[in-house]
């Protein structure tokens, strides 16, 4: 996106969205409506329906019917693939519009939103190939009388609960793979960022996804989300959000023992050795925590740096932070936008206060930025952080970096592993032995060596420890939404049990 393009304008009035069940768009009618204001401008931008549990039942019934009659689950994979390829084309065509709504509701910079939307087209293309490549196994080694097959079948109706930090990207790290597997979906976006999930509903319809295969119900997590995880006719729920709600999903799923995919919180280490390219590493560390205002489950929020370069490196990161362009996310030159919700803004500011109170030193940032409207926080670096401080232990989900020095490689690994989470980690060094050793011993589901936050449709996503269960994306992401059946086939006459 051209950095010099003029800033986009706000909608004259909030756009009203319906919700999608069985191919029909349903308007609010006498249901309550949730009005969302842009967190960067404090202006109402959208209205979505507060669906009821009865609406959810209707959507699940539509998804069930669509699954059972085979209109999607039993057609040849090549036909599913062709539809997914059309989705990619339509996303590219509508990318500006999708990015605009993503920015309005989430507060992220428009250039970033646009690049995320572009990336999602590739996810549909990759999943189209994966749909055709999906296969089972055969056992030709069971003797003359027996042949064995292992087949993969779609798991069924999937409930998809997504958060507000990457409303469209996280959705599209799941939907293409779930559809590739042959499942049907009931999606529930975060109540504050529902627009782009509803737009995806339009895109899928236009691409030829049959009615009932992709349904969207909007509404609150405590009613619709909770009812979804408890629902007895949903076969699997993919939940992305806080570890606390993830825990409640585990309890709620017990009713029908539905399968759960969980992508939860993180407190991700960035380990920097003295032999790293420090300029590169500082840029990466700043990006790792500044990007998306640190509101990423994979944000690198703990800087674990070799003591001999700790002070110099801390300053390098701070100087990068001071150059970041924070501001109106509708301006194409903006790099860091608004904090997405008032609750999240308060959480981050409370952690900054706690950091100060517990004795950490503010190297830069540490305060709210006033642009006359919206909520913004200056990217912040804390030095002198010890492992027992809240800012070292808790997921803050904001642009706040905690710096902790180490003396030996062993110590770096121990600090990195001193967390209940295990979502992601980065290591910066020019020494291949150190890079490999750290990569093997730090317990995290995603690892970056001399880079951070990179990714694409090929490599899977998911966490160790309390960061979650299962994997999304890649072929693993398709397999996750299948279940395995073993088939034993007798060849010739049976050896009789009763003679
Ligand atoms: O998340 P919630 P919140 C973390 C981050 C953040 C904290 C709180 O630390 O500060 O969570 O954010 C739906 N049953 N992450 O409160 O509540 C909800 O409607 C089923 C990390 O916004 O977990 C939304 O669609 N669903 C994370 C989704 O869950 C429920 C991304 C996430 O909301 C529900 C977001 C319930 N009982 C926050 N209650 C990541 N891993 O990227 C809510 N929901």
How is the secondary structure organized here?
Blueprint: E1 15-16, E2 19-21, E3 24-26, E4 33-37, E5 44-49, H1 53-68, H2 77-93, H3 95-106, H4 110-133, E6 137-139, E7 146-154, E8 157-161, H5 167-172, H6 175-181, E9 184-188, H7 195-207, E10 214-216, H8 221-230, E11 236-240, H9 243-252, E12 259-263, E13 269-272, H10 278-290, E14 302-306, H11 307-323, H12 342-357, E15 361-364, E16 368-369, E17 376-377, E18 380-383, H13 390-393, E19 400-406, H14 409-417, E20 421-422, E21 424-428, H15 432-441, E22 446-449, E23 464-465, E24 468-469, H16 474-479, E25 482-490
Parallel strand pairs: 1-5, 8-9, 8-11, 9-10, 11-12, 13-14, 13-21, 14-19, 18-19, 21-22
Antiparallel strand pairs: 2-3, 4-5, 6-7, 7-25, 12-24, 15-18, 16-17, 20-23
The structure holds ligand TXE.
Notable traits:
single chain; 499 residues; alpha/beta; Aldehyde Dehydrogenase, Chain A, domain 1; Aldehyde Dehydrogenase, Chain A, domain 2; 2 domains; 7-stranded mixed β-sheet; 6-stranded mixed β-sheet; 16 helices; 25 strands; 38% helix; globular; binds ligand TXE
Commentary on this structure:
- With 499 residues, this protein is of the alpha/beta class.
- The protein has two domains: 15-264 and 467-485, Aldehyde Dehydrogenase, Chain A, domain 1, CATH 3.40.605.10; 269-449, Aldehyde Dehydrogenase, Chain A, domain 2 (3-Layer(aba) Sandwich), CATH 3.40.309.10.
- It has 16 helices and 25 strands.
- Strands 15-18-19-14-13-21-22 form a seven-stranded mixed β-sheet, with helices on both faces. A six-stranded mixed β-sheet has the order 10-9-8-11-12-24, sandwiched between helices. It has a three-stranded mixed β-sheet with strand order 1-5-4, with no helix packed on it.
- Strand 9 (184-188), helix 7 and strand 10 (214-216) form a beta-alpha-beta unit.
- Helix 2 crosses helix 7 (195-207) and helix 3 packs across helix 4.
- The radius of gyration is 24 Å and the shape is globular.
- The N and C termini lie far apart (78 Å).
- Ligand TXE is lined by residues 161-165, 190-191, 221-222, 225-226, 229, 240-242, 245, 248-249, 263-265, 297, 344, 347, 395, 397.
């Amino acid at each position: 996106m051209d950095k010099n393009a003029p800033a986009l304008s706000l909608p004259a009035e909030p756009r009203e969205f319906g919700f999608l069940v069985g191919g029909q768009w349903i308007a609010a009618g006498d249901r309550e409506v949730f009005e969302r204001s842009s967190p960067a401008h404090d202006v109402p931008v959208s209205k979505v329906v507060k669906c009821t549990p009865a609406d959810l039942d209707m959507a699940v019934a539509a998804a069930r019917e669509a699954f059972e009659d085979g209109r999607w689950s039993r057609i040849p994979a090549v036909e599913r693939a062709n539809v997914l390829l059309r989705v990619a084309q339509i996303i590219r065509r509508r990318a500006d519009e999708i990015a605009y709504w993503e920015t309005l509701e989430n507060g992220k910079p428009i250039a970033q939103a646009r690049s995320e939307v572009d990336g999602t087209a590739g996810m549909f293309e990759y999943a189209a190939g994966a749909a055709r490549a999906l296969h089972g196994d055969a056992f030709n080694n069971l003797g003359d009388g027996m042949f064995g097959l292992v087949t993969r079948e779609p798991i069924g109706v999937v409930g998809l609960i997504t958060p507000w930090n990457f409303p469209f990207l996280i959705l599209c790290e799941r939907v293409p793979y779930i559809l590739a597997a042959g499942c049907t979906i009931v999606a529930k976006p975060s109540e504050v960022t529902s627009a782009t999930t509803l737009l995806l509903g339009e895109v899928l319809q236009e691409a030829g996804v049959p009615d009932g295969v992709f349904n969207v119900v909007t509404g609150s997590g405590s009613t619709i989300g909770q009812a979804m995880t408890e629902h007895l006719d949903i076969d699997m729920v993919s939940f992305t959000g806080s570890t606390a709600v993830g825990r409640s999903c585990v309890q709620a799923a017990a009713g029908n023992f539905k399968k759960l995919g969980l992508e939860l919180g993180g407190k991700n280490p960035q380990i920097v050795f003295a032999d790293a390219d420090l300029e590169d590493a500082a840029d990466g560390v700043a990006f790792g925590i500044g990007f998306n205002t640190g509101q990423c489950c994979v944000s690198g929020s703990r800087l674990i740096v070799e003591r001999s370069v700790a002070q110099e490196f801390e300053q390098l990161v701070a100087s990068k932070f001071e150059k970041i362009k924070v501001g109106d996310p509708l301006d194409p030159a903006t790099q860091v936008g608004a904090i997405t919700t008032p609750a999240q803004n308060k959480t981050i500011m409370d952690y900054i206060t706690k950091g100060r109170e517990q004795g950490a030193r503010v190297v830069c940032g540490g305060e709210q930025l006033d642009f006359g409207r919206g909520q913004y926080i200056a990217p912040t670096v804390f030095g002198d952080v010890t492992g027992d401080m809240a800012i070292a232990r808790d997921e803050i989900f904001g642009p706040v970096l905690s710096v902790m020095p180490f003396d030996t490689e062993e110590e770096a690994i121990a600090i990195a592993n001193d967390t209940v989470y295990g979502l992601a980690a980065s290591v910066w060094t020019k020494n291949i032995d150190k890079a490999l050793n750290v990569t093997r011993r730090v317990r995290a589901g995603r690892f970056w060596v001399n880079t951070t936050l990179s990714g694409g449709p090929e490599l899977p996503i998911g966490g160790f420890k309390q960061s979650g269960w299962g994997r999304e994306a890649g072929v693993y992401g398709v397999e996750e939404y299948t279940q395995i059946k073993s088939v034993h086939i007798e060849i010739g006459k049976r050896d009789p049990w009763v003679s």
